[in-house]
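We read letters as residues; the integers encode the fold. Take this protein.
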Amino acid sequence: MTTPTLTWCLVAACGFASACGYPQLTPISDGNDATGQPDASAPDTIDAAGDAAADADSVPGPAHCGARGEPCCQDAMCEARALCDGTTCMSADVWASGPSGSYHFNGSWQPFFIGSNNLPLNAISGTSPTNVVGVGNSGLIAHYDGSDTSWRKDVGETSDPDLNLYSVSGTGPDDIWAGGIDRLAHYDGSSWTVVPLVLGAPVSPISYRGIWLDQRGQGFACSAEYSAISRLDAGTWSKDRTGPSNHELFSIWGSDPEHAWAVGHGHSLTGFPGKIMKWDGTTWGTDEVPASTPELTGVWGTDANHVWAVGANGTLLFFDGTAWTALFSGTGDNLNAIWGSGPRDIWVAGDGGARHFNGTAWSAIGSLGALTTIWLSAD
């Protein structure tokens, strides 16, 4: 598996707030040039992180070179688990999976085997660089603890397709949840246990496509059926909401106990428009999205005022704490998942493979083919 060679160059450490602030990116509505890049003549009202341009000038003090999302240091040096893309340090410890199998990026994409096979995983997540978990079809659960060059199989596949697992999240090595069809399973550091669900769901099966937990170990799981959301509180799951039968949710992420978002699609006479549900600490409501937003499949952010969502046809949305705005993604491929370490180190998995945003531009990373999930540790 080949990856385009990354350019190594000499970049001086940044010493001015104006040079270290967030680069600006034009919203779709302001127009792009013939190459698809933001038009320099268009008003620069939204930057790569979605902040107003003035915010960049208010960054206190100079940025530190070498960190992910910051300028490369002299001799193209970056911190551990990062590398220089020519100007900016990017993560070099990234996990992804698609129909052809699972992969790890450390400068180039390498297949990451489970035993002697490179099996596809439906979701990958973790709590640190040495605590990564992947889940797949027929109950497959794989674990990476940093001590080997392959996945450890925690739970092997069965012949029952109803055991497919689609989501995983956790707070630490002894608190991980995986979601599948009519079931959630918990890992306590030594073994996995299927937790009985009494949710009163209006339809069965319910397939949990996304899980998010806060640092207290509480959180939510969203479903592709009835846009149902279940809530974890004090170790017990309960039904939090259900919606219309033809509405679906595929991904969920939160910044804190008072802010969380779940994305998917609704239903109309003309198709399946993108849908975003928002948790305000008390109830779930519906966020307004830009007109003609298609189905959304992934959501991630850095805090309550910096949240991104991706979806069909290269859709990329940004939430600045007030409203969602459509941004340029550099591709028309379906985007299936998004994760990152910060606003200048964002990764997406799509039908065209992996793409990375360094605060200035999007670029394809390797040629893996279709990917459905992507994750990296922000630590």
Summary: Residues 92-376 form a domain with the Methylamine Dehydrogenase; Chain H fold (CATH 2.130.10.10). Residues 1-62 have pLDDT under 50 and may be disordered. The first strand starts at residue 82 and ends at 84. The two ends are 27 Å apart (CA to CA).
